[in-house]
Amino acid sequence: MKKRLRGTLRLAVLGASPERCFNRWSRANLPFWSLEKKSELIFHCTAYRSDLQMLRGEAARAQCELQILGLYGLPTLLARVRRRSVLTFGLLLSVAAVLYLQSFVWFIRVDGNSGVRTETILQALSEEGVRFGAKGAAIDSEDLKNRMLNRIPKLSWIAVNRSGGVLTVLCAERETVQPPLDQRGLANVVASRPGVIREINVINGFSELKPGDAVRTGDILISGVMEWTTRIQMTHASGEVFADSFRALVLSCPASVWKKHYTGRTERCVTIIFQRKRRKISGNSGIFGTMCDRMVETSEWTLPGGWTLPIRIETVTLREYVLEPVSVTPSEANCLLDAEALRLTEDDMIAGKVRARVTKLQKREDGYICQADLNCTELISRTVPFEPFGEEEVHGEVNQRGTD
């Protein structure tokens, strides 16, 4: 950088003994570098432009001649533009524009977020007045930090740093800690549906059940009452019980459904979006009085280096259609109802899987009826609190099943 500011020149040293010239330059503390030997009488080197007169004087004393091969650096550039007034004015205007534009925010970069979306943070910053084109001097980092933490409670820390036209937002998110399992009070683990026990894991409490035992809905799987020889201990029972269960579903679907038929008529609307402002460029934004599909394509303007401008081009394509009745074949109905039965069963289970299923389809006048039988392995244990010395305990009729 120093060499470019002072200006350099490339020299050719000609003489019977160029080495004497270089020795005199060294004794005079005249810097030179990039020495290159072309022949026994010619050497090339680089030196500072400001030392040209002293270099020539020492070279003449060594009976050598200097030839200038090229001029480089800032002084050479300024000498060239000084003769062109328009270019000089443009250069000064460009420097002033760069210095002035650095006082505004043109790009915002967010780092450190994983759970909180970047768009959410940018939206909150925009509502606080920190957006594309905002004045950097008007941004109070400490005040902005406090307001952002109030807007986004999931953030535990945030810092705002500005370097020229780039605003960097560094943030840290709060750690999501799972609440401890509530073990307060007395509770039993009961069966939520009938089944045959496949696996039982007791964490706390007592159970006489084993794999292969059949249970009904409401049976106690893990008891919170543990009877010892000399005393009775009550606790909050917990554990997991997996069982083989059976489910039967009856589903129906109509004999015909409505299907889209595209007419071939399309409309396209192009809109330019700058921050929150929209301006339509061409096309219609809708087809009045008809049904249509709406497909949206958005393209952003990105500069080299990955900087994205808040300018987007949105293209909306509308395709007109009409609804026509289409008959449903038995195979289509069977596939549709079988997939729906599987989805309903899996959504109803907390944990587990469907091991096998059988569907029977019947044709009716108005549609199809499907009988679905599903064999599942699922979690049937549910925790139910109880009161000690309740009505059931008093009469000795505790609803608990075990090995007979």
Question: Can you tell me about this structure?
Answer:
- This protein is of the alpha+beta class and 404 residues long.
- The protein folds into 4 domains: 2-77, Alpha-Beta Plaits (2-Layer Sandwich), CATH 3.30.70; 107-173, membrane protein fhac (Ubiquitin-like (UB roll)), CATH 3.10.20.310; 186-255 and 328-404, no CATH class; 257-321, no CATH class.
- The chain has helices at residues 2-6, 18-27, 52-61, 74-82, 85-101, 118-127, 141-151, 330-348, 391-394, and strands at residues 8-15, 32-37, 42-48, 64-72, 107-111, 155-163, 166-173, 187-191, 195-204, 214-215, 220-222, 225-227, 232-234, 238-254, 256-274, 277-282, 291-303, 307-327, 352-363, 367-379, 381-385.
- Strand 12 and strand 13 (232-234) form a beta hairpin.
